[in-house]
Design goal:
Blueprint: E1 8-12, H1 16-28, E2 32-36, H2 39-48, E3 53-57, H3 65-74, E4 81-85, H4 90-99, E5 103-106, H5 111-121
Parallel strand pairs: 1-2, 1-3, 3-4, 4-5
Length: 124
């Protein structure tokens, strides 16, 4: 379980199975969360609401995770954005960091990995 402060998480993930997986993990961690289906929705939610961390899938329809991260960073939002991708090649990780992603997790991921990233990036 993550620290007892109420933590608000935004997840951008288009795959329904992955949405159910991360929902189950976040419920077990007792955090509040919203899940959106693409990068455009992620930007919209990030601008309207207050989140402590964003888990951002890279490959999504309409707007991918890289494009969404660029827009969020252009709005001077310093929220931690954790890339979630099946690709963990050095070039992919570098591209994410270059556009402002804070960190990354490779699919498939575990509850412990999600919990560790929350504890690492969310200010207590």
């Amino acid at each position: 379980m993550v620290d007892k402060k109420i933590i608000n998480v935004l997840v951008a993930e288009d795959n329904e199975i992955n949405q159910r997986l991360i929902s189950t993990i976040l419920k077990k961690l007792e955090v509040t969360f919203d899940i959106v289906n693409d990068g455009a929705e992620c930007v919209e939610y990030a601008l309207k609401n207050s989140y402590d961390i964003i888990f951002m899938d890279i490959q999504m329809p309409n707007m991918n995770g890289y494009e969404a991260t660029k827009i969020i960073r252009q709005k001077n939002m310093s929220i931690p954005i954790i890339s979630i991708s099946a690709n963990s090649f050095e070039d992919d990780v570098k591209k994410g960091k270059d556009i402002g992603m804070s960190d990354y997790i490779t699919k498939p991921y575990s509850k412990n990995e999600i919990e560790n990233k929350i504890n690492q990036w969310v200010k207590k």
